[in-house]
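Input.
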Amino acid sequence: MSGSVEKVAVIRDTYTRFNASERANHWVVAVCAILLMLSGLAFFHPAFYWLTALFGGGQAARVLHPWIGVVMAISFTGMGVRMFCQNIWNADDSKWLGRIGDVIANRDENLPEVGRFNAAQKLVFYVMFWSVITLLLSGLALWHQYFGDLVPIGMQRFAGLLHAVTAAAMIITMIIHIYAAIWNAGSTRAMTRGSVTGGWLWRHHRKYLREEVAKSK
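Output.
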């Protein structure tokens, strides 16, 4: 990066990473995902059935679970449309992922410049993208109130297995995503306040900082 860009990064205290609409969209998806995880675990094994009390009992949880899923699918569709182009994989992402040891050791100087999202964040996006689609379709097949008579029993059984496996993959991805956000100081601020410092962008998303500086010229 040229000296002029570094100077702008220092002079300007903060940069908007996520605007209010993007943050609201993210938190709607996050809250829905957590509610679906809790209610889904309650249905998955009797040991977790006590979680239905959070929703007003077993019957209420069964009624709410699919509708929350629909809300999450719609919300994630909005997020996907907004951020799809910025999550397209490129050669730098492969290089970044190949140097994951440097990422963990915080040796950012050894990493290729990163745009708005790094390779790990893009992988989370892809897992969530396909998980939401799979959970929605398999969930519809299991929604007996509206589609029970339309789906053969064999397909319902397969849908139940697919729903459980996909949900497990999404839960694991969510845990990794939350851990990474806490581990990478400044990430949680980006999704709560919307802004990050120029120094944070210079260190973690240098290519994105270049783009933001170019816009301000």
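The chain has one domain: 18-193.
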